[in-house]
């Protein structure tokens, strides 16, 4: 694991995929309640956690993301009934593979955040960012063409 | 080449205080394809919308990005504005710079930088947006109500009154549900049968209502406005059209040892029986498990005595198929059998009864003809202990976590009714909390305490055991802070209510979501309380959560209004953000159909011209039924060749956002 | 062998089948190439022996599109791939006549060469002996020592889909290796060691696509890497990310569907142990979602198109 010397100053690039029905609404609630988390997190809205293709996550790392988190409805609460159950297996497998390839597994995460859990959303983001910060820049999985 | 307009909203000071909106507009204007960028105090206001409309027209914009509050707030507003200006509403993207930016960040430089990235992502995405047109589908103007209790009856009557045909499917031989079993109703003490049975008759006779009693839903397919439902009409072994309901067969049946479900097993019925006198339809049913004719082939008395010739031992189950526009779930509830609570002695002592059994013991049409006689020896009880919250509000695995809601009130009712008829009876009630919110509810409870002198004890019961012919009830009195033991003749348990067992399988058939307790969940807890998240499925009564009769009836009416609102429409507009399969890439492998929760994907063998001497090749390709697809995207990830993609959230669109963010 | 020829001749002569997909001898006596025979060509050159290692199932995608019925010789381990192709409607089962053939594990010419033998003129199998004639003289090797890697972890000797099969009780007489041992060895490494291992392996990739082309599961009409509209198309690896990307995506696309036939590693000209990626997925899914062998049953749902409500959370990975 490479720890950036100036990890305090290190501003990671974090991509958060949030499902429209629960987690995106949870993020909105965090905003309405003014629960802050670092600006390093940028949210991409998807209809359901099951819409997130592993390609998107690899793409994010390729283009220089330091961490990718996927948030969806709690299992059993999926708007589409079963989406997050598929997402759960898919992401478990993808993360397992990244770990197997020696990519720091802490750079990826899945969290279930409901529309009512604004506080959990903010706390999750804060925690994830500090984890990624302690890992430093993503060097192992990125496209060198994309960085100056 | 796109021409994109970017509109940055101040939201008063909500955004502008933390985000330098001018800088965002300035940065956006330098992005590729952006031909116009501006900021304004309130984009969602009429003048704000006009600004957008004018800009679309003036600059011939082909795409619009609004940097504002959450799309969950005003996406529809801005889409409508775009439409007014002649732009396809799906050419609008929102960058959420309020909830996900200005409200959570304090540092202006940081928030502004993030807002610019979010704007950039939206600009990148909108360039790949395609005009989308929502599909239309027809609405079958017929409603299915599953469950024929008071909830289902009320919804059916209201929908039928509006002129739409309604079918009620009820698994029992009669409609009426649990309410038919009740004696009096709180807080007015009017008799349940007196108010319910006229509604049952009305439902049975209504020209727009078809009853399918002794029937179950077997299969559901389709989608809002277009459900196809298979209903199994179980064989009654009695011809509905010939039976006059005289009841002679039920009297002559020699097998009169069957526990009578309607009276909670407190008395017996024959193998051919009518559940209760006011049953609708008043047609008996043969319990083939109990019938001598079916067991041994001998007997046949019912057939001999029936002058109408209605008995048909050969009758088979019948499957009918019907199309519906809307489906109402009114599957109701059951009271748990408190057998898991061994300490309360329900399985051990016949005089420990559930409240629903007590209800039957008090009912004039019940097993004791309304005389309160205890089951063990038929003597009138003089000391009765009521135990509340049996199986409700608990943490252990045998408990329900929720409050069953109606028990406090019906226990007060039982106490008052008992004291009214038998003033010399002593009544004690163990309670955790008395919960009596509702019109005239607390007054009713106060009457039980003050006027009737019912002994309310705050505390729970630990044990019920028998001693010298008495039921000894050992419990704690929390207010007196002591352990007490009462000698009782009868103990009545306010056992928890739970959703009907069939709800789960119906939920699966309808893809209607349920909570962990198997209550159906509403589309929105506050704003859409009678709709299931699955479009076209509505909720009525206890199947959504514990509630009393007035609440059930109001909810049933509300569900009816939603159904009527739907059935009044001739066509429905779908969500155009649905999956689409590129047949040039499709392998026909069926992986997508395996994960589709709606069964929206089918396969066709299609001929394609190919190069070479053999000019035509047949390939199996996926076809999405756009009216059925809800746009979750599960299929898109399963597809290895990316033939399956989601409109509005395509692979390329999402990747362009990723790229913009990670730049 | 003789029994197979007789059976194939009979089916071809009586019109049950029109063509035969099998192996033919190549320039050297140990070269075996998949080939199609028909009445016109006769069965001249058709051979089935310990060097017939190729998985023929994938050829059926194209063969079953043609007119008439094709007979295919199907080894036990390849039949899993065929079942997957049937499950995914990639072949027309009606146009295929599957003749199951026995297998006592295949001999690897690469392994024979790896013993240091050069100038090989001929290789002949006699019982458990492999007799190698070289320009320097003759050598006899023990068959057990030169079996294909994939055969050392062979699933079993059961043909899972067939119309007819030819039985044999001959076995290789070897003790199977633990299929997951190599995966476990990698798992035991530190992340950096694993990263370095995979970098050193995947950086050898020349993107010849042999692994993709041989794979009976990787059978898309158009591969995402060949499709400009996917945003990830690439004909060659430009940088380390793309080397990783290609193999991660390939492994992921076949995850839950891969039968572990081992062809990807066998055909890799750079000797990248690609099967270790697929096997990792298989191991993980077996452990988390219950044992599953793709291709055993053409009806079963594979682990990534199924779920249970009690499935492990993805955090099991980072809590390890």
How would you characterize the overall build of this protein?
The complex is a heterotrimer of chains A (148), B (663) and C (320). Residues 1-7 of chain A have low confidence and may be disordered. In chain A, helix 1 (23-32) packs across helix 4 (118-135). The longest helix of chain A has 18 residues, at 83-100. Chain A has 148 residues and is α/β, with parallel strands linked by helices. Chain A has 4 helices and 4 strands. Chain A has helices at 23-32, 54-62, 83-100, 118-135; strands spanning 14-19, 41-46, 67-72, 108-112. Chain A has a single domain, classed as Rossmann fold (3-Layer(aba) Sandwich), CATH 3.40.50. Chain A is globular. A 4-stranded parallel sheet of chain A has the order 2-1-3-4, with helices on both faces. By secondary structure, chain B is an alpha/beta fold. Among the domains of chain B are: 4-126, Rossmann fold (3-Layer(aba) Sandwich); 235-316, no CATH class; 333-498, FAD/NAD(P)-binding domain, CATH 3.50.50; 579-647, 2-Layer Sandwich (Alpha-Beta Plaits), CATH 3.30.70. Chain B is built from 18 helices and 34 strands. A 5-stranded parallel sheet of chain B has the order 10-7-6-18-29, with helices on one face. A 5-stranded parallel sheet of chain B has the order 20-27-21-22-23. The two termini of chain B are 22 Å apart. The model of chain B has no long low-confidence stretch (mean pLDDT 94). Chain C is of the alpha/beta class and 320 residues long. Chain C folds into 3 domains: 1-103 and 157-175, no CATH class; 109-146, no CATH class; 178-320, no CATH class. Chain C is built from 12 helices and 9 strands. In chain C, strand 1 (19-25) and strand 2 (32-38) form a beta hairpin. The longest helix of chain C has 15 residues, at 240-254. The model of chain C has no long low-confidence stretch (mean pLDDT 92). Chains in contact: A-B, A-C, B-C. Chains A and C meet through helix 2, helix 3 and strand 4 of A and helix 7, helix 9, helix 11 and helix 12 of C.
Kindly summarize this structure in a few lines.
By secondary structure, chain B is of the alpha/beta class. Among the domains of chain B are: 4-126, Rossmann fold (3-Layer(aba) Sandwich), CATH 3.40.50; 235-316, no CATH class; 333-498, 3-Layer(bba) Sandwich (FAD/NAD(P)-binding domain); 579-647, Alpha-Beta Plaits (2-Layer Sandwich), CATH 3.30.70.
